[in-house]
């Protein structure tokens, strides 16, 4: 287990200029610790902050100097305390010296491990590197960094630098920043190091790799250009989806006194005859059957093995072709990277020459790959050059799997140019679209490209681990809301939207959308049923069943609350008299609609509609004398909005005078006339 | 696990919960093949595969045979009928002349394909002249109209099933472009008119009629003579329809197979563009890995199907329980429990299906920004009028400005960032090669991308770089080994084809296992052409120097010798025979076992037990 143990020092700049992103740093560092707790629980981590008023480190005690560097947590095996430490970083008061911090971190690693666990020692520096580092006692800063870097290489340490440059720090030709960048770049020349620059807090969250996977080769062997000309290569995965953790099923059957209970659940499969369910067939008596038309053909594994397609292991070139012959959307799977055998100089040269030639001519290669002996299928894919722009990184290839003839479905779609004029944009509309495409720019010149996959964290995983931590402290903790940094991944950035308000408004003005009036309600409902996951689908399905029972044949009656005609649908539904169910169903549907609208609202764009629905709901509840349904819902939505930070909707309700249904309006109501507005009054106090 | 044991094609990346990924059971197709059996089909020959001449009839019959063999695997629920027309004998419910419905006993005329039907049809040519016979049915002086009759029979066959749930088609295979050429005057006009009317009636009933014309090099099938009206071609379509005869023969089999896919959308989604403006899109799975059909477990004694029953057993108490509502993750030595609802709430990070975030230049979409097959989106005005117009406007702007859209796709299984790449329509010879629309490309997150390039970065400072001469030689090589007409998916999957072939061979009791031609192997002959071989050699010498082969051998030899020597000395340490007798081999490590195998020049692959068995065999025990 401990073979892949990693030792990591987090060096975090907590100086005043970093305060604005400390919350993000805390999040990403604690996520890193959490993932280690789940996947690599023998890893060891230490936390050092710099830029603090106080000083606390061994080097200071031993040799002096190294001020304002505080060891928050000496290296130890990851545990819950470490998560807490990273979540409560102190706010420093002084600009820190990152070079001092690096030396302190190195010293900690050397003292603890000497020369053991080579290659698994890592320092991770998070700073903005805005302030000059101290001049060394002798030599230049540059010499000093070279010495440090060589030491690092000698001890088999890696360093990752994440340099945060917020927008506000953009000062052109800042000599300090330039000098610091230069100094940090020395590391990557001398040792295994990586420096990334990020500008937004969202990218900061994505910049630190929170899970350290030991890379494994998929294939080692020859890239055969021809039977006589081969290049030695290694193949790795370049992308691979980090899945949502597979949670185990929980069994509560064990008595609570049993301390050693695993609470796990085993799955057991029994095969029974379809005709005679009481007869259980033992596993060895089973045989695989494949459908052939209406028949099922039994095929024993021996027969199958004998006739199976058994390709030879190998990676063979079929030829080169123009890059334009392979369209991007044909890439089928996650991506491999093919590098030259690292120990083979000639192979490096061959890969480099080919990659550069292909890039120059805009060509790609077509390969046939069988990665392992005994693999039962072949892969056809496209080889694209990946020419390196760094001196110390070799050229390589990316490899993407392409579909076989069987995998492509040739559906025909109408040509846009053949569509009727009414469906085609006119000149003004096209211009408005051009502007939108041009202006809603996520990669403006001179700025960081927003939402680069390399720097975009997975919001679902972030949220899961966050919840996991909360639950470890309080088992009943609710699912935390998505914080604003992560919202910038799932929703348009406020800044981009507000900067382009004019363009967006113009775009909206130029196009008109409306519900298709010709579509019958029944057809519309059918369409909705196919939209899985939405409540309409579910309601629709339940209703289908009910319809069967009632035996109603009418298909044009409204059965769900639609997207665009919510109010009309609701009115139609609530006034249906063929079953008493409809009233409650209509109310239920409308409540969901309102909640949906409010929740999905972007800067209040759905509020008018939600309001309209709410008014209709109120009216309906008065007519049907269901005041409690409405009153309770109004309370609920009010609370909901407060929790989800959607106060503006509450304000809108107050301003439009949406109040409880009172006793005068409906007998069942327990709200007196004077309390009708009580909800909002309370809010104002 | 036994549930899905066919790991041959299973891919651990596939997410069975993701319904976007899986092909949905579609509505079925009812197809009637109408094969012309007139003497002209037998007399006119065209070059076949082996340069020998074959008749059009043979081409037609074998492509239908090929097609139904594919279809029984691809879409076993489809119903098929095969009709010959212009026959001597007649066999049809209406008792019309010149039409023979081919069938086997105990099968409906239009019904599911069965192994027996396919087997018999494979042999139809042998006995054709005896049992069915060929005779041109439209002759002067007779009121008989075999084409009309054929359409009538086909239409009658297709009467079953509702047009809503089934797709009905007639596929007409003929080489006669002027079926009424022998007839003159009013009769001709009249016959043509009634036939067209019959075709139109069928079409009005929701039956589509497709024509697969066969023409020979010296006599091209002229579709405008008669059939253009029958299948309703107009203007451009007409000009585009006529295929190049020669190519068409080769493609016929494939073409049939591909036509069997019916277009269906995966789901309808709402795309929120900006400022509260949302449009309606349909998504389609145009590219998905095809896997062999599902496995049905059978009782090997009775060959009757089995059903799997899953039960949950509490590991602590051994009691059988219901599917539990909670999941847990061990964290900080504690079991942290999650309710299913909580897990789905965690995953719900976005509301609405697809939300536009902005645009980027296409150069920002890297080759490694990929995780799974893309999904095609096409606008629909079905519910929201105006969607198509907005979509087209954005589509055109994106193509012109060379940009792609970045959006967040809030699917329930894996919400993620996607790139929407606009694709212009590409047509070739009347066929649509790439439909117009956008492809949704699933983008990785930062933790999905691995920094492999840096893994072997060189700390001494300089990576060896190819020099200009080497690049030049590589360029020459790339130019030489050029697949000019390469198109994605020109290869069929040899593993899948061989699987089908095995199932088919066993189902049809074929004696021999068919040889599957592996199209994916490199063209070694082509590669050894002097031009290419020369370019290859020059590149090799330029990069590796003259001693490539020797070095290769030397390196291999040296390494091999070294390991062998080490293995011999290591193996000598043990008394293998004694260890084997005492049953102590299992106490050795795999490395130690391997030393014996290497020293004795045996293969070292396999698990420990395999290694032990191999050693025992070698020792003769």
TrEMBL record, chain A:
<dbReference type="GO" id="GO:0042162">
    <property type="term" value="F:telomeric DNA binding"/>
</dbReference>
<dbReference type="InterPro" id="IPR014893">
    <property type="entry name" value="Ku_PK_bind"/>
</dbReference>
<dbReference type="Pfam" id="PF08785">
    <property type="entry name" value="Ku_PK_bind"/>
</dbReference>
<dbReference type="GO" id="GO:0000723">
    <property type="term" value="P:telomere maintenance"/>
</dbReference>
<feature type="domain" description="Ku">
    <location>
        <begin position="278"/>
        <end position="419"/>
    </location>
</feature>
<dbReference type="GO" id="GO:0003684">
    <property type="term" value="F:damaged DNA binding"/>
</dbReference>
<keyword id="KW-0067">ATP-binding</keyword>
<keyword id="KW-0378">Hydrolase</keyword>
<dbReference type="InterPro" id="IPR036494">
    <property type="entry name" value="Ku_C_sf"/>
</dbReference>
<keyword id="KW-0547">Nucleotide-binding</keyword>
<dbReference type="InterPro" id="IPR024193">
    <property type="entry name" value="Ku80"/>
</dbReference>
<keyword id="KW-0347">Helicase</keyword>
<dbReference type="GO" id="GO:0005524">
    <property type="term" value="F:ATP binding"/>
</dbReference>
<keyword id="KW-0234">DNA repair</keyword>
<dbReference type="InterPro" id="IPR005161">
    <property type="entry name" value="Ku_N"/>
</dbReference>
<dbReference type="InterPro" id="IPR005160">
    <property type="entry name" value="Ku_C"/>
</dbReference>
<comment type="similarity">
    <text>Belongs to the ku80 family.</text>
</comment>
<dbReference type="Pfam" id="PF02735">
    <property type="entry name" value="Ku"/>
</dbReference>
<dbReference type="InterPro" id="IPR006164">
    <property type="entry name" value="DNA_bd_Ku70/Ku80"/>
</dbReference>
<dbReference type="InterPro" id="IPR016194">
    <property type="entry name" value="SPOC-like_C_dom_sf"/>
</dbReference>
<protein>
    <recommendedName>
        <fullName>ATP-dependent DNA helicase 2 subunit KU80</fullName>
        <ecNumber>3.6.4.12</ecNumber>
    </recommendedName>
</protein>
<dbReference type="InterPro" id="IPR036465">
    <property type="entry name" value="vWFA_dom_sf"/>
</dbReference>
Automatic annotation (TrEMBL), chain B:
<dbReference type="GO" id="GO:0006303">
    <property type="term" value="P:double-strand break repair via nonhomologous end joining"/>
</dbReference>
<dbReference type="GO" id="GO:0006310">
    <property type="term" value="P:DNA recombination"/>
</dbReference>
<keyword id="KW-0234">DNA repair</keyword>
<dbReference type="InterPro" id="IPR036361">
    <property type="entry name" value="SAP_dom_sf"/>
</dbReference>
<dbReference type="InterPro" id="IPR047087">
    <property type="entry name" value="KU70_core_dom"/>
</dbReference>
<dbReference type="GO" id="GO:0043564">
    <property type="term" value="C:Ku70:Ku80 complex"/>
</dbReference>
<dbReference type="Pfam" id="PF03730">
    <property type="entry name" value="Ku_C"/>
</dbReference>
<dbReference type="GO" id="GO:0003678">
    <property type="term" value="F:DNA helicase activity"/>
</dbReference>
<dbReference type="InterPro" id="IPR016194">
    <property type="entry name" value="SPOC-like_C_dom_sf"/>
</dbReference>
<dbReference type="InterPro" id="IPR036465">
    <property type="entry name" value="vWFA_dom_sf"/>
</dbReference>
<keyword id="KW-0067">ATP-binding</keyword>
<dbReference type="GO" id="GO:0016787">
    <property type="term" value="F:hydrolase activity"/>
</dbReference>
<keyword id="KW-0233">DNA recombination</keyword>
<dbReference type="GO" id="GO:0003690">
    <property type="term" value="F:double-stranded DNA binding"/>
</dbReference>
<comment type="similarity">
    <text>Belongs to the ku70 family.</text>
</comment>
<dbReference type="InterPro" id="IPR005161">
    <property type="entry name" value="Ku_N"/>
</dbReference>
<dbReference type="Pfam" id="PF03731">
    <property type="entry name" value="Ku_N"/>
</dbReference>
<keyword id="KW-0238">DNA-binding</keyword>
<keyword id="KW-0347">Helicase</keyword>
<dbReference type="GO" id="GO:0042162">
    <property type="term" value="F:telomeric DNA binding"/>
</dbReference>
<dbReference type="GO" id="GO:0005524">
    <property type="term" value="F:ATP binding"/>
</dbReference>
<keyword id="KW-0378">Hydrolase</keyword>
């Amino acid at each position: 287990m401990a073979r892949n143990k990693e030792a990591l020092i987090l060096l975090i700049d907590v100086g005043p200029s970093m305060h604005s992103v400390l919350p993000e740093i805390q999040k990403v560092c604690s996520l890193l610790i959490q993932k280690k707790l789940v996947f690599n629980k023998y890893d060891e981590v230490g936390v050092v902050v710099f830029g603090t008023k106080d000083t606390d480190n061994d080097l200071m005690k031993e040799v002096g100097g190294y001020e304002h560097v505080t060891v928050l947590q000496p290296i130890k095996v990851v545990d819950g305390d470490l998560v807490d430490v990273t979540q409560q970083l102190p706010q420093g008061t002084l600009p820190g010296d990152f070079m001092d911090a690096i030396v302190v971190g190195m010293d900690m690693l050397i003292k603890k491990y000497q020369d053991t666990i080579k290659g698994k020692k890592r320092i991770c520096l998070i700073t903005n590197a805005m302030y000059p580092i101290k001049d060394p006692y002798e030599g230049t800063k540059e010499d000093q960094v070279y010495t440090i870097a060589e030491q690092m290489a000698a001890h088999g340490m890696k360093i990752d630098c994440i340099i945060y440059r917020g927008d506000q720090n953009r000062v052109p030709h800042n000599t300090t920043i330039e000098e610091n960048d230069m100094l940090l770049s020395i590391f990557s020349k001398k040792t295994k190091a990586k420096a990334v620059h990020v500008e937004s807090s969202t990218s900061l969250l994505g910049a630190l790799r929170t899970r350290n996977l030991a890379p494994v080769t998929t294939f080692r062997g020859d890239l055969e250009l021809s039977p006589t000309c081969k290049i030695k290569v290694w193949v790795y995965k370049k992308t691979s989806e980090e899945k949502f953790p597979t949670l185990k099923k929980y069994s509560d059957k064990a008595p609570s006194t049993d301390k050693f209970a695993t609470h796990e659940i085993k799955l057991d499969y029994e095969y029974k005859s379809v005709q005679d369910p009481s007869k259980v067939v033992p596993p060895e008596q089973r045989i695989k059957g494949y459908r052939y038309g209406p028949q099922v053909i039994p095929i024993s594994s021996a027969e199958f093995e004998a006739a199976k397609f058994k390709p030879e292991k190998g990676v063979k070139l079929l030829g080169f072709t123009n890059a334009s012959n392979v369209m991007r959307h044909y890439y089928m799977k996650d991506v491999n990277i093919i590098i030259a055998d690292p120990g083979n100089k000639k192979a490096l040269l061959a890969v480099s020459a080919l990659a550069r030639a292909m890039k120059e001519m805009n060509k790609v290669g077509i390969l046939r790959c069988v990665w392992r002996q005994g693999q039962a299928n072949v892969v056809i894919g496209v080889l694209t050059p990946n020419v390196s722009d760094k001196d110390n990184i070799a050229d390589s290839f990316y490899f993407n799997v392409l579909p076989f003839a069987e995998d492509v479905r040739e559906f025909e779609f109408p040509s846009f140019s053949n569509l009727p004029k009414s469906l085609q944009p006119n000149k003004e509309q096209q211009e408005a679209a051009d502007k939108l495409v041009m202006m809603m720019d996520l990669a403006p010149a001179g700025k960081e490209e927003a939402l680069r996959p390399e720097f975009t964290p997975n919001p679902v995983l972030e949220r899961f681990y966050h919840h996991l931590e909360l639950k470890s402290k309080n088992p009943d903790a609710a699912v935390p809301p998505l914080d604003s940094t992560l919202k910038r991944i799932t929703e348009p950035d406020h800044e981009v939207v507000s900067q382009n308000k004019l363009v967006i408004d113009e775009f909206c003005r130029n196009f008109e959308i409306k519900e298709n009036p010709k579509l019958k309600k029944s057809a519309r409902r059918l369409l909705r049923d196919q939209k899985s996951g939405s409540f309409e689908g579910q309601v629709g399905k339940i209703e289908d069943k009910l319809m069967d029972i009632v035996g109603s044949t009418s298909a044009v009656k409204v059965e769900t609350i639609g997207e665009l005609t919510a109010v009309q649908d609701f009115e139609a539904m609530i006034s249906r008299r063929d079953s008493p169910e409809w009233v409650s169903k209509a109310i239920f549907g409308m409540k969901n609609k309102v909640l949906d609208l409010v929740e999905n609202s972007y800067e209040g764009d759905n509020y008018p509609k939600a309001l309209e629905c709410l008014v209709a709901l109120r009216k309906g509840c008065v007519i049907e004398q269901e005041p409690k349904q409405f009153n309770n819902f109004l309370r609920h939505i009010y609370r909901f909005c407060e929790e989800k930070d959607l106060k503006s909707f509450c304000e809108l309700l107050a301003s439009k005078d949406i109040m409880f249904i009172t006793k005068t309006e409906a007998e069942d109501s327990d709200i007196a006339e004077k309390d009708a507005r009580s909800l909002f009054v309370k809010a104002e106090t | 696990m036994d549930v899905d044991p066919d790991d041959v094609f299973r891919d651990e990346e596939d997410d069975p919960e993701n319904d976007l990924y899986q092909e949905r059971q579609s509505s079925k197709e009812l197809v009637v093949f109408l094969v012309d059996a007139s003497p002209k089909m037998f007399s006119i020959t065209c070059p076949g595969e082996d340069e020998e001449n074959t008749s059009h009839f043979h081409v037609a019959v074998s492509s239908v045979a090929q097609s139904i063999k594919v279809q029984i695997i691809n879409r076993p629920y489809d119903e098929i009928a095969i009709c010959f027309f212009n026959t001597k004998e007649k066999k049809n419910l209406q008792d019309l002349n010149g039409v023979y419905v081919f069938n086997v006993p105990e099968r409906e005329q239009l019904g599911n394909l069965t192994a027996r039907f396919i087997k018999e049809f494979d042999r139809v040519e042998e006995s054709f002249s005896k049992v069915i016979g060929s005779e041109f049915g439209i002759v002067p002086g007779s009121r008989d109209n075999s084409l009309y009759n054929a359409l009538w029979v086909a239409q009658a066959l297709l009467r079953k099933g509702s047009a809503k749930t089934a797709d009905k088609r007639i596929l007409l295979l003929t080489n006669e472009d002027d079926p009424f050429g022998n007839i003159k005057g009013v009769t001709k006009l009249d016959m043509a008119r009634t036939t067209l009317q019959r075709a139109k009636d069928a079409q009005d009933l929701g039956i589509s009629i497709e024509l697969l014309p066969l023409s020979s090099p010296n006599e091209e099938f002229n579709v405008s003579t008669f059939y253009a009206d029958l299948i309703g071609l107009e203007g451009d379509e007409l000009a585009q329809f006529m295929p190049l005869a020669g190519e068409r023969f080769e493609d016929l089999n494939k073409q049939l197979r591909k036509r069997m896919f019916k277009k269906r959308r995966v789901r309808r989604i709402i795309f929120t563009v900006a400022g509260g403006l949302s449009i309606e899109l349909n998504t389609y799975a145009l590219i998905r890995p095809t896997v062999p059909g599902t496995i049905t477990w059978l009782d090997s004694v009775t060959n009757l199907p089995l059903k799997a029953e899953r039960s949950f057993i509490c590991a602590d108490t051994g009691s059988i329980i219901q599917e539990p509502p909670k999941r847990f993750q061990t964290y900080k030595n504690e079991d942290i429990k999650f309710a299913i609802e909580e897990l789905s709430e965690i995953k719900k990070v976005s509301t609405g299906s697809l939300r536009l975030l902005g645009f980027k230049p296409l150069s920002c979409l890297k080759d490694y920004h990929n995780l799974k097959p893309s999904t095609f989106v096409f606008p629909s005005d079905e519910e929201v009028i105006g969607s198509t117009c907005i979509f087209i406007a954005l589509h055109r702007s994106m193509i012109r400005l060379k940009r792609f859209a970045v959006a967040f796709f809030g699917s329930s299984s894996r919400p993620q960032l996607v790139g929407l790449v606009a694709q212009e329509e590409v047509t070739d010879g009347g066929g649509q090669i790439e439909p117009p629309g956008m492809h949704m490309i699933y983008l990785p997150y930062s933790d999905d991308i691995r920094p492999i390039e840096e893994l072997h970065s060189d700390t001494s400072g300089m990576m060896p770089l190819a020099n200009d001469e080497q690049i030049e030689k590589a360029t020459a090589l790339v130019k030489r080994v050029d697949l000019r007409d390469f198109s994605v998916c020109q290869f069929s999957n040899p593993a899948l084809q061989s699987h089908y072939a095995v199932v088919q061979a066993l189902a049809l009791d074929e004696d021999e296992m068919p040889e599957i031609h592996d199209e994916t192997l490199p063209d070694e002959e082509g590669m050894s052409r002097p031009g290419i071989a020369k370019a290859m050699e020059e590149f090799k010498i330029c990069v590796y120097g003259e001693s490539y082969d020797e070095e290769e051998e030397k390196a291999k030899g040296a390494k091999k010798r070294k390991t062998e020597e080490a293995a011999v000395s290591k193996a000598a340490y043990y008394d293998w025979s004694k260890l084997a007798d005492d049953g102590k081999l299992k106490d050795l490590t795999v490395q130690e076992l391997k030393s014996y195998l290497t020293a004795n020049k045996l293969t070292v692959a396999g698990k420990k037990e395999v290694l032990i068995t191999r050693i025992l065999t070698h020792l003769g025990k």
